Every structure is written in C-alpha cells, then in structure tokens.
Automatic annotation (TrEMBL):
InterPro entries: AB_hydrolase_fold, Peptidase_S9_cat. One of its GO terms (cellular component) is membrane. This is Peptidase S9 prolyl oligopeptidase catalytic domain-containing protein. It comes from the Eukaryota. GO terms for biological process: proteolysis. GO terms for molecular function: palmitoyl-(protein) hydrolase activity; serine-type peptidase activity. It holds the Pfam family Peptidase_S9. Residues 155-315 form the Peptidase S9 prolyl oligopeptidase catalytic domain. SUPFAM superfamilies: alpha/beta-Hydrolases.
C-alpha cells in the first residue's frame, strides 16, 4: 500500500508528459501560426495606415493560390511622374511576414524602406513591394500550414512574373522574409530557382532567421527530460532554410543574400545565424551580414539601421 501514492504520482507525471507531447504534435499549426494575435488582427485595414505610409500608396489584391485558395496581397509603391514615362527596370520586392498579426500593421516599416530606396534610386527604375497574407491570415481564406503557405508563395511569385513583365522593361525580384517568414522566403526562393523563369531573382533578405524548426527545438529546449526535442520526427512544419540554401547553391544564377539578425533577439538564439553564415561560406554563396545592434526579435526592420541595411542591399543587388 505504501507504494500506491508514489505510483499514482509518477503515473500522473507520465500521463501529463505524454498528453503534452500529443497536444504539441496535433496542434502544431495553432502553435506555430498565429493569425489571431493580437486580437482583431484579421480585421486590420490598409486605410488605417495610409497617412503614416504616405507617399507610398497601398492596395489589396486578391489572387488564387496554386490549389485555388483565395489569398490577399498588399501591393505598394510611390506614384511618380516617371511612372508615365519609359521605365528601364522594375524591381519587385516580395515580403513574407513573421507568424503573427497581418500585413497592414507592417506597411509603415515597409513604406519606410521603399522611401529610402527611392531617395537613392535612378528615375528610370520603379520599385514595387508585395506583401503576402498567408492562407488563414488577414483576409485570406483557408488554414495556415507549411504545404499551403508554400503554394501561396509560389502563386504570388507567379502572379508577379505575369503582372510586372513587359517587353521593354527588365524585371527583377527580391525576396525578403522575417522570422518564420525567412524560412518561407528561402524555401520560396529555392523552389522558384528550380524552375526556369524569365524573371531573375536578384536577392534574398533573411531577417532574424533560423536554420529550421528542428534546430530551434534543439536550441531552445536542450534539456533531455523535456519532451520537445524528441518531437521533431512528428513535425509537418519544417521551414528548413539549410536545405533551401543548399538547393539555391545548385542554381545557375544564384541570388545575393543579406543575413540580418537582431543582437538582442529573445526568440532565435545567436547560434542559428552563426550556422547560416557558416553554411553560406561552405556553399560559396555571395552574402553579407548586418547585425541590428540592440534590437529584439521583431525590431530589426523597425530600427532605422535595419531599414537602411535592407534598402542599401536591394539597391546594390539590383544595380546593373
């Protein structure tokens, strides 16, 4: 009888451990993707940010993903007199956000980058920024999953290639992703380069990136008594930037890379950016690294230093 209480206690601990493992696996999409945070994120409106974004003008475009899901894009640019004259080059910047909120609250910082670019750009070059609302986010339909978001990213790139290509204008694409969006960006870039496209991918910006979901699990939960590091075989969300970069290295026309970590990142350990930098060296990819000093995980591009770095990189990568 004396062994009954401790047996029950141990049994309850094991049951709780197993329950937590099961729930983590079954609800990983809910844990990783948070379109509902902060509250009312899906009800955000572009018009509410129009004043602070000026002179950048934004509009919503609705397109179909590769599986037919209706997804939304925020498309922005600065109207100029030159828009009605001959344009030698059109640079389209594709932005993939982090795992929370929606595109409209990010439009002010994206607008600031566009403003910085335009102050230094040639008058015969037009810059457009397209931000994707993943399925399940903002006004996009469906439910967020990695397989679905990969289709959304390719649909956006296909739409850009069809919409912004013209016989007399050179079109170039820059892909920019933040946090988990960096995983989306690298995966999208690898897939895009694996197909033969007339539109070149000139650059890839990875802001506060991590190597993979598995790597993050091992880095954040190294304790062997915790269940998390044993769960990666059951993941269906991987966002493996290492694998994507290896595919990019095999492409004929490799894009330039910008690695932009935040030095006070409270989410992604510094070991992750070190792994990615080492990988770029190993694969002989042309890259540069810009540390945003003092920035937290979501602050890298909100800081002037980060915005300047992205604008400078885009101008350099697309200069011909």
């Amino acid at each position: 009888m004396i062994l009954v209480p401790p047996s029950i206690f141990v049994g309850l601990l094991l049951a709780l451990w197993a329950y937590k493992c099961l729930m983590t696996v079954l609800f990983q999409d809910k844990i990783i993707y948070m379109p509902y945070m902060p509250p009312f994120a899906r009800k955000e409106k572009i018009a509410d940010y129009a004043t602070v974004c000026w002179p950048v003008e934004w509009e919503e475009q609705r397109i179909r993903s590769l599986d037919g899901t209706r997804i939304s894009l925020c498309v922005g640019g600065i109207p100029r007199i030159e828009d009605f004259q001959a344009v030698r080059k059109h640079v389209v910047i594709c932005y993939f956000q982090g795992n929370g909120s929606s595109p409209p609250p990010r439009l002010p910082l994206l607008s600031q980058v566009l403003k910085l670019i335009h102050t230094r750009a040639h008058t015969d070059v037009r810059y457009t920024l397209v931000a994707l609302a993943y399925r399940g986010y903002w006004t996009s339909t469906g439910r967020a999953t990695q397989s679905g978001i990969e289709l959304d990213a390719q649909a956006m790139l296909k739409w850009i290639a069809e919409t912004y290509t013209s016989p007399n204008t050179e079109t170039q694409i820059i892909i920019w992703g933040q946090s988990i969006g960096a995983g989306v960006a690298s995966t999208a870039a690898a897939t895009f380069l694996s197909h033969q496209h007339d539109v070149p991918l000139a650059g890839l910006v990875l802001e506060t990136p991590f190597t993979s979901v598995k790597s993050m699990l091992l880095a954040l939960y190294p304790q062997k008594w915790l269940p998390y590091q044993y769960l990666y075989p059951f993941l269906w969300n991987h966002w493996d930037s290492e694998s994507a970069l290896r595919k990019i290295a095999e492409a004929g026309n490799k894009p330039r890379l910008l690695l932009m970590p935040a030095t006070r990142d409270e989410v992604v350990p510094p070991t992750e950016i070190a792994k990615l930098e080492h990988l770029c060296k190993e694969l002989k990819l042309e890259y540069e690294r810009k540390n945003v000093v003092g920035a937290l995980h979501t602050e890298a591009a909100t800081r002037r230093e980060g915005q300047e770095a992205v604008a400078k990189f885009i101008l350099s990568a697309t200069r011909a």
